Amino acid sequence: MEVSNGEEGMSMVVMGRYGVLYTKPRPKSAETSPRVIDMRSDTVTRPTEEMRVAMFEAEVGDDVFGEDPTVAELEKKAAELLGKEAGLFVASGTMGNLAAMMSHCWSRGEEVLAGDQSHVVLFEQGGAAQIGNFFLRTVRNLPDGTLDLEELRSKLQPEGKVAGDPHKTMTRLIVVENTHNMMGGRVIRPEYMDRLAELIRGLGIRIHVDGARLFNAATALGLPPAELVKHADSVTICLSKGLSAPAGSVLVGTAHFISRARRVRKSLGGGMRQVGVLAAPGIIALEKMSQRLEIDHNMAKFLGRGLVSMSDLGVDLDLEAVETNIVFFGLQRSDMTAEDFVARLEKEGVANGDRVIVKMLPARVASGEVKVRAVLNHHVTHQGVECALIRIREILANRGGRKRKQET
Amino acid sequence: MRSAMATAEVGDDVFGEDPSINELQERSAALLGKEAGLLTSSGTMSNLIATLAWSNHGDEIIMGTEAHMFWNESAGQAALGGVQTRLVPNDSQGRINPDDVAAAIRPSGNLHFPRTSMICLENTHNRCSGGVLTPEDTKSVGDVAHAAGVPVHLDGARIFNASVALEVPPAELARDVDDLSFCLSKSLSCPVGSVLVGSQDFIDNAKRWRKMLGGGMRQAGVLAAAGLVALDTMIDRLAEDHQHAKRLAAGLANIDGLTVDPESIQTNIVFFEVDEDLGTAADLIAALNRNGVLVSYPGKQSIRMVTHRHISPEDIEEALSRTSAAVRELRSAA
């Protein structure tokens, strides 16, 4: 396959098995529109040039018949990387988590324990109950993202203990989220997983890791991802977040579990056909994009340091808590809520002579306080963070009146 | 399509920001005379979303005895949607009788009875040999349903085959139904996906259900871009697939030991029966596979062949001669 890099602003031409691919030149107008610094999420990441070429070239087949070689390759690679037997490509992390929980809770009367601030509880629309037909019970998430082990211990209802008691659901699965989104992109360490595994040993209870951002955790710890999930019976990883593939996630587990999950996925409507076109960028995501996440973490710390320097303007942030690519900060202002701030930030402004639009999201945290969340991703460069900080300072310094919330 | 996918303008569709998806959804809705559209990952997902959107747990939905939603969607309507499926007979063309539908719709006010939440039609009809419902057929069921206040969902996986076979605009086939799904990944040849269309309210609701099922994809404009190419270039050519299917059926009818009525073939699907004295469908399929012909849907005695853009007229003749060979193999073995 021949690749020629055109000059700045010209088309790139690729010649391959399926003919010639011309990429569109960047339209002139793009150079004169404001620069968007989008920190709403890492899901906004667009596929790289290499991924686009891979989509063009992907070998495909009907995956419902098991005949798509590219998705088969992706599933195998993901499983190997995570130390599991088999993998299953799914349309989203939500589908991966739902299919996993449904595949573990195969009989009536079973329950899943998950963190009260976890994605499966807060942001998957109650699919566990509505679609999966099993009980989802919560355990408190501690600020470090872990599940409170003492509370967990007290809530366990292993089948061996409660089978004779028709009042009680049987605990079948515990879901751990790594990194933990709402607690601030926190990293769950292998030592914690060891203690959790020890707690449930011999009780017939399994562990599913919602590893939407598992590679961020692995990068932060400098460990292979398999090490973080060695006690997990199943794991979901997202390709479409920091890893920047256009869509999809991969669920991994034992071969038996995955064959069950494949059935569940079909019933949810996730049986896609020539899905190699999505799997091809997914492979690049796994192999290449997983290696650059440290940059996002450094950008997050850079943003965090800048925010901490604005504590006199009401910014409330514990820099120690910024472990990966997510930054949550509070605004102690009587004149401006987090929602106001985000709305003002999203209006076009000027920083370093450039027109910029900075995007973040408000988020209600466990305490009920609404904070601001910024998620670093490959589109947000050092310069982008600089501009964002300039805009933030401008907005916070601009408004008159009391800078700090009145202590009551 | 590969070019379009690789160069597609994309954005995060969960934020509604993927321009390729937005364009596909708008164009699909317009083509079918509906207000809005929604890209989903499969026809199964579209059909399940329709059930979830129209029904509550414990409702009853009505469809034909041969419906794909009943046979091949892993009982998702019951397992995940919490509804009971009530069947009424399909005729050989895939139609259901409006009188049967009227009789099956539950009267309200009786504690014993579930509520009828949705009637489902299928056009073209897969298990009925790709049979076509005309606008009149559709209206006759639609009228009965709407008179009782019940919405109609059309499983239009192959609606464009129907439109081309009848030479009517697809919007006419959609006029008397409340929502419709069509597949991008079948004869339209896109890699993945289905589009659900209906009123704005219905689609807003459908979006929630899609997310719950895990169908909220991000930069799926790469898939939508292929869909846009399909809407432009892959519909008219379906007429060729239909011609090939008719020729195939005529050829199969001439093979001793196989039964099919070539007159009944309207689109790109051919079901034929294997005479019992020859063997079972499974026996013939094994022989066909040995001869390099891949087919599907073995009923005990029935086999399905489907034509599409990778099957040329030469392939049809080749398939016929290899099928003859396979039949001869079976005969000599018997």
Considering the chains and any ligands shown, give keywords for the structure.
heterodimer, A: 408 residues, alpha/beta, Aspartate Aminotransferase, domain 1, Aspartate Aminotransferase, domain 2, 2 domains, seven-stranded mixed beta sheet, four-stranded antiparallel beta sheet, 17 strands, 20% strand, B: 334 residues, three-stranded antiparallel beta sheet
What features would you describe in this structure?
- Chain A: One of its GO terms (biological process) is L-threonine catabolic process.
- The complex is a heterodimer of chains A (408) and B (334).
- Chain A contains 16 helices and 17 strands.
- Chain A has two domains: 2-47 and 292-397, Aspartate Aminotransferase, domain 1, CATH 3.90.1150; 49-289, 3-Layer(aba) Sandwich (Aspartate Aminotransferase, domain 2).
- In chain A, helix 9 links the parallel strand 8 (170-177) and strand 9.
- The model of chain A is unreliable at 1-10 (pLDDT under 50).
- By secondary structure, chain A is an alpha/beta fold.
- Chain A is 36% helix and 20% strand.
- Chain B is of the alpha/beta class.
- Chain B has 14 helices and ten strands.
- A seven-stranded mixed sheet of chain B has the order 1-7-6-5-4-2-3, sandwiched between helices.
- In chain B, helix 6 (98-104) runs parallel beside helix 7.
- The longest helix of chain B has 21 residues, at 313-333.
- Chain B is globular, with a radius of gyration of 21 Å.
- Chain B starts with a helix and ends with a helix.
- The mean pLDDT of chain B is 97.
- At the A-B interface, strand 3, helix 2, helix 4, helix 12 and helix 13 of A face helix 1, helix 3, helix 10 and helix 11 of B.
